[in-house]
Amino acid sequence: MHTVRRAPRLGVAAGLFGVGLLLAACGGGGGASTVPTASGDIDRTAVLRVTSPVPTGSLDPHLQRTFGETSYLTPIFDRLTVIDGQGQLAPGLAESWEFAPDGSYLELRLREGVTFHDGARFDAAAVAANIRRGQTLDGSTVAGALQGITAVDVVDDNLVRLQLAPGTGVELPGLFSANAGMMISPQAIEAGADLRNDPGRSGSGAYLVTKYVPQESVSLVRAEETNWDPEAGKLAGIEFTWIPDATTRLNGVKTGATDLSWVSSANEVVEAEALSRNGAFAVTEVPFRNVLGLYMRPQGDLAVPQVRQAVASAIDPDAISALFSGTCTPTRQLHPVGDWASDESYRYPYPFDPEKAKSLVQAVGGAKVTLTFAAGTNAEKPANVIQSALSEVGIEAELDPVPNTQTEPRYIAGDFQTNVANTFGAKVDPAETVSTFVTGAYDLANGSPQIGELAAKAANPTLSQAERAPLYTRIWDLTLQEAMFVPICNQTNATVATVKVIGADDMPWTNRGVFDVRHLGMLE
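RESULT FIELD:
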């Protein structure tokens, strides 16, 4: 049995005007070994036991609080678009999509013959009902993603036109590959059904929910109806269990209590590699699309640009990588190399240079910062190394461990000066990356009008990728010059499965720390 190391999966944007469907080739470096050949027939009576590092607090697609929660819903609710195993945007319930020449609308050509499990028909009216629900449901977490849609026109049963606010919407095809694009039965919507704990038969996916314990587990059974996707529904059922501890998840696979799980901590990744060599397990490794790095707010001494620059210059990515036994690959970019919106020749403005950092600190008369991180996570050791590095250049750094559930929301709220985290993740379309991290709540642009203007121009849906690409590479450069975020390295995510599991080596989303198990099966 071999450990499979896959090249980085790259999200792509779809929807140049005049193009029904645009798929960009997956790029990037990295080798991959051949997946071990498994023999036998698919066991359609098998139940796949999965342990997840991410919990779920709701089964309503429009109330998902984190991207990770969406993983539990992909077998239940079909989406307008999907991300395939190579990280490319592909048709789902929408067979094709096309922007108007002037960018005023986005048309979706829908798949025919799809029925929800409650008997309702999937058509353009169903899409319109879902858009309205996502925009207006109390507490909706997709309302922001859909805010650029000003009206929905049902052109005919299988063609829907989304009217767009000027200069918006370029990211919608990519957004529709997650919970914003999950389709709920219009009958359930009209009835005002509460889907949080029981979706019932409101989906059109290959599986139905039989039991749900919030924050603990989800049990699924294959639906009686044939799904439109012939690759879905190979299993009789799926059992999801949330286990936050990586060692416990790996032990579950080792002991036979679990069929499939994921680990990204260095010790567990190294152990998984060793286990794969004995032939009992299949291990597939991918570099995270997310970047482990240091977020900074212009608070206290960090309001001084020279202090932020000194912090950035004091951090050695190789030293952080060593903490992860080489499973965190140093990177100095925001966007994945090889993607159409990246610049492979880019040079980070603040490479590791402790002497420069010392000079900057001395010039401002010293500095003090607080390093916040999620206690007991992969961020803890890097935070300690960063503290030591800052001390060496004359910056007094105090460690601030907080519960994992608090770090991100409280940082966004402005409660923390810094945050050492692995949460910066390039989205399917760079417009969403910018609106989330650069000009949005994280404000890595530091309020820069120049970056804001470039972001608005780059998000114009009438522009081609070739026209948008240089705008985004300029945005990444200007953003990193602000020194509000220091990219350090990309961790490795390892999918660990028994040899009976098929399809785990080509599973979408694992490079984002989540998963899409719709197409998995098990051998007899």
